[in-house]
Amino acid sequence: MLEKLKNVEKRYEKLSAELFKPEVISDREKYAALMKEMKSLSPVVEKYREYIRADEAAAEAKELLEQGGADKELHEMARQELEEEKALRDKCLEELKLLLLPKDPNDEKNVIVEIRAGAGGEEASLFAGSLYRMYSMYAEAKNWKCETLNSNPTELGGFKEVSFMICGEGAYSRLKFESGVHRVQRVPKTESGGRIHTSTATVAVLPEAEDVDIEINPADLQIDTFRSSGAGGQHINKTESAIRITHIPTGTVVECQDERSQYKNKDKAMRVLRSKILEAEREKQQSSIAGERRAQVGTGDRNERIRTYNFPQGRVSDHRIGLTLYKIESVMNGELDELIDALITADAAERLKANEE
Question: What is the largest CA-CA distance in the chain?
C-alpha cells in the first residue's frame, strides 16, 4: 500500500508541474481535466504526507529512547511523543485505506430524484410532497440547483409523483443512499379522531446520464404528445405540450409536462430516459458479476423500507444502520447531513471489510 501511495504522490507532483506549463494553461479542456485529477488525488496525498511526518517523528523519538543516557524528564517526553506519533501514524493509515477504496464513478454526477406516493391515499401524497420539500431545502443549503422535471400534484398540495433534478458537485455521492421506501407515522390533517396513520412513499435516486454514457437510437423511441393535467388551472389542458417517451427495446416510459414548451419537455424527458436506461444497465452488470457485494447500507431497491419518520415521537429512524435521531423537524427542513454522513461512513466500513476479506 505504501508503494502505491508513493506512486500517487509522484503523480500528484507531476500534475502540479504540468499545470504551470503555458501550453497546458492555454488548453482549457486539458487544464480542467488535470485540475480535476489533481483535486481527486489531493486528500490522499495530504493524508500520506501526514502519515510520513508522524512516522518520521516516531522514529526520532524511538531513537532518542534507545540511545539512553538522557535525563528522566527528557526520557519521559520522548516516550510520550513516541506514543502520540505512533497513534497518529496508525490513524492516518486507517484513513488512507478508506481513501484508497475504489470511487463510485457516478459520485460527482448530478442526480434525478423520483418520489412516488405509496400506500396511504391522500396522506401518502402529502408525505411525498414533504419529502420533495425536504430534498429541495437540502439542495438549497448545499447551494445546489433544483429543477422540477415532472409532477402530478393533488388538490391538497401533495404529489402522486414528482421527479426533479439536483445539479451540484457531489450530489450523487450525498444522495445515493436515499433510494427505497420511506415510511411516515403521523396524524393526518384530514383525520378528525386524532388517530396515527402509517403511509409510505418511494424514492429513486439516479445519476444523470451524459451523452457519452449511453447512446439511444432515435428509431427505438415512440414519442407521444398530450395535454397537461394536474391540480389547479395554470396552462393545463390548453395545448398538447406534455411529452411521453417510450423506449421500445426496454419498455421504459417517461413523461414530462412541467414546461409550457413541448421542446423543453422533450429535452427533460430525454435526460430522465437516458438516466433510467443507464441505471438499468448498471444494475444488470452488477448482478452478473459473481460474488460482488452491493452496498450493505442498502441495495437501492425501491421495495426496501429504509427509514421511518415518526412525528408523535419526534424521531427519524434509519433501519439500515440502526440510527435514530430525535430531531424530526430539523430533518424535514432539509438538515440531512447527520443521517447522510452516517450512511456514507457505514458504507465505507462495509467496503473496507469486503476489500480486506
Answer: 94
- 171: number of Cβ within 10 Å: 26
Check if the beta carbon of residue 101 is closer than 8 Å to that of residue 95.
no
C-alpha grid cell, residue 85: 506519533
Distance of CA 280 to the CA centre of its chain: 18
Q: How do residues 332-351 score in pLDDT, each as one tens digit?
A: 999 999 999 999 988 888 88
Crossing angle of the two packed helices 28-67 and 72-99, in degrees rounded to 10: 150
C-beta atoms surrounding 337 within 10 Å: 12
Distances (CA, A) of 19 to 14, 35, 270: 9, 8, 37
- Stretch 178-188: mean pLDDT: 92
**169-178 pLDDT tens trace:** 889 999 999 9
Give the span between the Cα atoms of 40 and 44, in whole angstroms: 8
How would you write the chain as a 3-class SS string?
CHHHHHHHHHHHHHHHHHCCCHHHHCCHHHHHHHHHHHHHHHHHHHHHHHHHHHHHHHHHHHHHHHHCCCCHHHHHHHHHHHHHHHHHHHHHHHHHHHHCCCCCCCCCCCEEEEEEECCCHHHHHHHHHHHHHHHHHHHHHCCCEEEEEEEEECCCCCEEEEEEEEECCCHHHHHHHHCEEEEEEECCCCCCCCCCEEEEEEEEEEECCCCCCCCCCHHHEEEEEECCCCCCCCCCCCCCCEEEEEECCCCEEEEECCCCCHHHHHHHHHHHHHHHHHHHHHHHHHHHCCCCCCCCCCCCCCCCEEEEEECCCCEEEECCCCEEECCHHHHHCCCCHHHHHHHHHHHHHHHHHHHHC
